[in-house]
Every structure is written in C-alpha cells, then in structure tokens.
Amino acid sequence: MKTTGRMNVSPYFYLIPSLLVFAVFLFYPFFKTIYLSLFKTDKMGQAKLFVGFGNYAELLSSATFWNSLKVTWVFVVIVVFGGMFLGLVTAVLCNKAFPGIRVFSTAYALPMAIASSSAAMIFQIMLHPAVGIVNKLTGLDINWLNDPNTALYCVAILTAWLNSGINFLYFSAGLGNIDETIYERASVDGANGIQKFFSLTLPGLSPIMFYTFVVNIIQAFQSFGQIKILTEGGPNESTNVIVYSIYRDAFFNYRFGSAAAQSVILFIIIMLITLVMFRLEKKGVKY
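Now predict its structure.
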C-alpha cells in the first residue's frame, strides 16, 4: 500500500460551519465577558477604564456577593437532590406495567414541557397569602414568597419539580437497561424490595445517575426565570442567587464589568464542580 505521508485535511473543512457558529455564539461572548470583567464600563456596556482584577477584588470584599454565593449553594443543593429524588421515585413507581401506566408516565414527565415562567405564575397564585390554595389547605396564614424564611425554599421546590420531569426520563431509561433476571435471582435468595433497590437498582443506575447529577448541578446554577417572576431576588436578598445578581448588576445598576466578573466566577465554580465530579467518577465513586 502506497502512502504519501501527507495528511488529508479535506474532512476538516466540513467542521468550518459548526466552528463558525461556535465562534459567534460561544467563543466570542465568552472571551468578551472575560475582557469586560477587567474594565469599568459605561451604561451602554462599553469598556472605559481598565481596572485589572479590581472588579474581582470588589466582589470578594462585598457582603452582598458572599450572601448571593451562600444563597446559591442552598438553592442548588435543594434543587439537585430534590429534583433527582422526585425523578427517581416516579421512575421506580412507573417501572412496572399496570393499567394506566401511560397516564402516570405522562404526568410525571410533564414538568419538562412547562416553561419556568408559566409554572412560576401558577405557583405565585397557589402561594398567594389571601387566595392561595396552599394556605387554604393547610389552614396557615403565611406570605410564602415575601417571608425571608420561606421564599428561597418555595422557589427551590418549584425548580426541583420542574427538573424532575427530565430526571424521570433519564432514570426510566436507566431502569429499562437493568436486566430483570437479577431481580428474579435476588427473589429466589430471599431479598425483599428494599434490599433489591439498594443492592441492585441503585448500582445499576450509577452511570445514568452520574450524568443526571452533573446536568442538574449545571441547570440549578443557571436558574433565573422563576426567581425573576416570583421574588426578584428578595425579600432581603434571601433569593438573590448569583445568576439574578448578574442580571441585576448588568441591567439595573449598569455595572457590566462587575456582572461580567460574576459570570466568570460562576463559570469557574461550575467548571471546577464538573471536573471534580468526573474525577470521582473515574475513581469509581458511586452516586
């Protein structure tokens, strides 16, 4: 077989259209954000005064920024574990065939088809202190979304429910790939339902659980619509997650440099968490 020693570059030309799309909608905004984070800007977002890492230093000395980080972590923990728990439970419930299974499966997957803004408006009515169904059913008189002690949990629970729909599909697919014969052998050995779940189901779902965990973390950090509609970061900064803080700094305070710096910090946090998760997955840590 005769070889010329030359590399065939023609296949790489087929990548040019996709690379152009990435360059316009991903690479340019990314590097533009890093650039703006090093400047003070005018109200139009144009870089005016180079301050280096001044925006970052200002953020790290700001009590408001640290509060937004703390609120974000609490929000992410509730959303990730709540959404995954709901998705896993509903997937397990629908793993067996019974009359009406399609109705239940559709209902459990429905949250993924609902826009966060629409769900937030419905949730706002349900939690209304005077006419909301939650207070009427529980007999309580709580202004859920205007109380600093409850607002964050309300928004987080709504977000967890919204994410549970796609989690249901992920876990349903994972359960479908587990060999049923292992359950039959476990039954012969005298294992009960709880033992089967923890010894067979969870280990069998480990790969899909890892993927779901990473995706849910990224989605939780980027949640915005429901917070904007329900609380707008309040009351008393109790729901001011970092994404909403970026939005408020950029489009209300016109501090685009500070908003860009927060965006870079958010990117670094998500990147580090993702890298740690992949490192743990390679070491064989089960989820």
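Residues 63-93 form the longest helix (31 residues).
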